[in-house]
Amino acid sequence: MDLSHPQRITSRNRKREAQDSMMVTCRRTKFMAKYHRQNFSMPDSVIFYIAKNPKTAKLYLKTCKYFFVKNPIIIINRLEHFHGKWRVKEKPLDLTKYSCKYWITDEIYDFGNEFVDKNILSPIIPKLYQCDVRHLSLSDQIISFSDLSLLISSAEEIDLYDVIVKLADGSDVPVDDIVAIAINAKSFEFTKPTITPKTMKELTKLSHFSKFDQFGLYDLSEVFDIDAFYSYMKKNPHTKFYLTFDEQISDAFKNRLKTIVDEILETKN
User: Fold this and answer.
1) For the whole prediction, is pTM greater than 0.85?
2) Which of 65, 137, 173, 180 could bridge to 165 as Cys pair (CB 3.0-4.6 Å)?
3) Domain 35-266 class, CATH top level
């Protein structure tokens, strides 16, 4: 028997798809079987508004099936991207397959590398009802500034490795503009960020920048204004700063870094 025959393979695939479709239909039928219209003490218009505008994920999870039917949202605590696949609790999940929305409450982790799709986030952004993540970690991605704004505003811990953020006109967004929207961040680390000669001065203008517990920029070029940074660092005893530089920096810049390091080591506090 030749099991590799194209017609047999096609037939088996169609049968499997039909079984999968039947399984999904059966699960939905079973779920809906216990759904009954509720008699609420409030007007239907008020209940409808509440169903369409849940304030918190915790509150939404406590509601009845009526709310899910009117506004289907799946709550996800931790969303991972690993080897080209999105996962929830280590199980693959195709976020674009279902008609519901998703509410991410705690973490988004992208364990990507230079060989994976650079735009893994674009297809799922329209599927997000809300993003309240505390920890955002992205690697080797190209993402629009508007999409990043949806993910980063609630994050307290942000790790961006080789991430390029783009404006609508195609230009790269400097790291100071990204920090500006990270209003709840306590820890911010960025490898290979886009910087300008004004980056450090722009960062110091942000009221929440001085409240960071930890701030790291890695693989920097000598475009970074190290003197502006050093001046600010001496005035901010709260934040722990971490900087590394590209190996291609000039000898003059290396000497300036050495001088700063020597001055720091000679300081008692």
Assistant:
1) no
2) 173
3) alpha beta
